[in-house]
Amino acid sequence: MSAGAKTQDQFLSILSRDEAAARFDAALFPRVLRHERLALTDALGRAVAQDVVAPTDAPPFDRANVDGFALRAADVTGASEGTPIRLSLNGEIIACGVAPGLRVTEGSATPIATGGPLPRGADAVVMIEQTQPAGHDAIELRRPATPGQFVSYAGSDMARGETLVRAGSLISAREIGMLAACGIGALDVIARPRVAILSTGDELVQPGGRLGPAQIHDANGPMIAGAVAENGGDPLFLGAIHDDESALEKAMREALTNADMLLLSGGTSKGAGDLTYRIIARLGAPGVIAHGVALKPGKPLCLAVCDGKPVVILPGFPTSAMFTFHDMIAPVLRRMAGLPARAESKVTARLPVHVASELGRTEFVMTALVDGPEGLLAYPTGKGSGAVTSFTQADGFVKIDALADHAPAGAQVEVTLFSPNLRLPDLTIIGSHCTGLDLITGPLMAGGRQVRVIAVGSLGGLAAARRGECDLAPIHLFDDKSEAYNQPFLSEGLELIPGWRRMQGIVHRRDDPRFEGLDARAAVAKALLDDTCLMVNRNQGAGTRILLDRLLGGARPEGYWNQPKSHNAVAAAVAQGRADWGMTIAPVAQAYGLGFAPFAEEHYDLALVAARREKPAVQAFLDLLRSAEIRQALTAAGFRPA
Ligand code: AMP
Ligand code: MG
User: Which residues are bridge partners to 235 per DSSP?
Assistant: First the structure.
């Protein structure tokens, strides 16, 4: 049996998440962790490799705790208001850093500062406030002192030989202070695992580079490097390698000579270019441990151990890569770095919508939390595992059991938070997204308000507003019967806030002579007569689609079934030549450098949940919306404020 055929078998036997994690663990632990010696100030956040024992006492000598006088308690036993006792002052002042030279003998005292070493003979300190000067070089006391009063004895804070920090504990600023006080300038800590990171794929271009046709930016490489650093590793990002077996094998072997772990992404599905897992089998024993895990996102995950080093192929799609990293790799990396498992914090919330799930795979749904009328709601942020924003817009994730095929709307769920300090938004906007909205939310956020915009389209936003789950729902819905925008769709408890107008029109490439000089109706009429002319439509339910259908008058030209869900997707299809014409809004046409024949103005307004009108963040939004600056900014971006 060839190595390739053998690995295919392993891909067919998909393991459960827990089984895969257990096998990976068993192949990696227990293991000896590398140590390194670091200067104390560089050890922040590291795990201590060996117990650290105090080499000296702290404080190193008996010292005064207050500003005052060092004396012998026995000399002032009888002092009282009626019978003050006079002590002569010795001829030195013990400031901090001054070693005493004179003995405190019977009937004498020595001025001493807080932290000053107690002179020989003295056994107590009195505060300066509780003494009176008595002529030159003498003081009077009107109350007795007890032996040991205001004295810290040598070693009372930390005693020589005492264990200060235990192996495995983490160094925070507080530990640094303690070790510094004991004179420890360097210590042994667990070395950060060196993690080599390689992206794979012919289509990848590093961020900062220009995309050619069919190319995408490498999101995984930089993202995984960041996640490695966040979890105690030392990332070594080596860029993207083409899907070429020998180049890939060479890069992987080189990476492994210098690294403790190798993380790849892409190339785990069974396409012609997917070679990585075959190479792993040649890199060292035991090789592939799991290829295919019943996780969603993340099924193509491949876990291997080659001569003691973890070698992992994360799925290519960024959300899947990130999720599997956090779920399966971060725990292993943290153990290798000597760090404790990440503290998990959870909150309960309700799902506002039905969430479908694949039977047989443990599914993780990224969610954003918003404050609803009856507690927290967890809105799914996912746009499919190919999207990178699912993570950044989420507060945490919900786990749906492998045995469930969905979670119903209204279900109580547990949300595992990405960060233990959850901050709920001050302003929640759910509905249709528009770049004009960013012109308002930007300044709000710069002013310190937390704003969350969840893009679910006009109808989804209206439903959320009716349930009282948001403050504002941006909508642009045209009512055929009344021929009016938005107002006819409002129900009780909602109020329409006029937003801005967006000019809808027909877009085409500027250099396309077929559309030169034509208005929107003429352009569409011409396109309908020319079967080389390909359209791009919009999804059912979109305001743009309603306008288009009216223009088409029942015609179904070539391209009609290509129905993307955004203004931008229409512009991209036309700009790249996948289609020749479509309908989008003026600012988007402008951004893509397309020719634009205006057709009709669309009203983009906001449905306000009236009960939330008085919230400060809502007021701030409304003030901005009406301000001269924002109206100017909207106009400059191609919108017409209402
Ligand atoms: P693959 O497993 O290589 O077939 O990749 C699956 C999908 O993930 C493809 O659409 C790839 O273009 C995409 N992908 C792979 N690597 C990356 C990466 N480093 N950054 C962004 N997307 C990627
Ligand atoms: Mg690939």
Answer: 195
